[in-house]
Amino acid sequence: MGLMDIRTRVEAAESAAGRPVGSTRLIAVSKVQPLERVESVLVEGHRVFGENKVQEAQGKWPAFRERFDDVELHLIGPLQTNKARAALDLFDVIHTLDRAKLATTLARLAQETGTCPPLFVQVNTGEEPQKAGVLPREADAFVQLVREMDLPVEGLMCIPPADEEPSLHFALLAKIAARNGLTGLSMGMSSDFEQAIALGATHVRVGSAIFGDRIYA
Ligand SMILES: *Cc1c(COP(=O)(O)O)cnc(C)c1O
């Protein structure tokens, strides 16, 4: 538990997989966590964080960014089109591009501003009705569509079903990425990031194992 322990485990998993140490980006998922816990991880020197809600992130990160340089912020939760502009202002990477309408909005804003952060396409590998993401069979066409809009798609992201073996989903995501020539793989959370690294994760999203359990009001 804690940042140093998770860093050590990430490096061990990289080595065990025969991958260069440091080839996985460790995203510390700070949603819902008390500000003191987030601050102590910043003080420990970590700079890469993930949030799942635009509004929540807007409430805490501008102040942290005034005090800490080089914070890199990843959006890992669903993005509504009416929050897209705010998301582009705040986030350095967006992991949840999951539908054509959002792609169209991002493309328009990218035209307007002349920039767009790297994007990950979310794939609903478990085909769960309540979960966001394009279906595996629609993923190739969607990636092509996004590329035709000149959007910078860097990779794929998934959240496996809670009750299934995550490795099957990580392997499926890696396969879809490879056949589309995508190198980024955003997969793995507190309970399964080592398995994700073994299957090629370039970004792991770890919350409770770094900060402790989230306490919802
Ligand atoms: C909350 C969240 C995480 C982190 O979950 P932990 O189990 O606390 O590591 C990772 N990815 C997404 C998309 C999340 O919403």
Descriptive report:
The chain has 217 residues and is an alpha/beta fold. It is built from 9 helices and 8 strands. An 8-stranded parallel beta sheet has the order 7-6-5-4-3-2-1-8. Strand 6 (153-157), helix 7 and strand 7 (184-186) form a beta-alpha-beta unit. The longest helix is centred in the first third of the chain and has 14 residues, at 3-16. Pyridoxal-5'-phosphate (PLP) is lined by residues 29, 31, 52, 76-77, 159, 189-190, 205-209.
Query: How many angstroms separate the termini?
Result: 23 Å
Radius of gyration, in angstroms, nearest whole number: 17 Å
Number of discrete helical segments: 9
In round numbers, the mean pLDDT is 97
* Strand order in the largest sheet: 7-6-5-4-3-2-1-8
Q: Could you say which overall geometry the principal axes of the C-alpha atoms support?
A: globular
Given as residue ranges, the uncertain stretches (5+ residues, pLDDT < 50) are none
Q: Considering DSSP H and I runs of 4 or more, what fraction of the residues is helical?
A: 40-55%
| Cofactors and ligands | pyridoxal-5'-phosphate
The biggest sheet amounts to:
8 strands, parallel
Give the H and E element order: HEHEHEHEHEHEHEHEH
Count of individual beta strands? 8
Q: Strand-residue fraction?
A: 15-25%
Structural class: alpha/beta
